[in-house]
Amino acid sequence: MGKRRRRAGTLAVVLESLVGRHVSVELKGGDVVSGVLEGADEAMGVHLRDARREAPPGQTVGDGDDVKGRNEGDAVVRGSQVRFVHIPKHVDVARAIGQMRKRRALARRKYK
Questions:
Q1: Is residue 2 part of a domain?
Q2: Is 77 helix (H, G, I), strand (E, B) or coil?
């Protein structure tokens, strides 16, 4: 999604630091889309690779147009449909953000 700089105080920075990691995105309708985070935009829209969509127990997967791509493969979830982004327990968010900032600084120095 967008490659512009994220504002330091936004949740988009947290999502950007999780690129390449497996996350689960809970939708407002209750369905959950899981996959490897490829990118996120300022509006909390997410792009997942190897995505799988699951319904809560006892329900069927919704038919709305909130997710493009239904089964395994790529999925793009509109930010307006995201209720939660579940971060894996083993991920230290502060450390992930610090590593992302170091990668950014290194890239800026390299390409000046």
A1: no
A2: strand
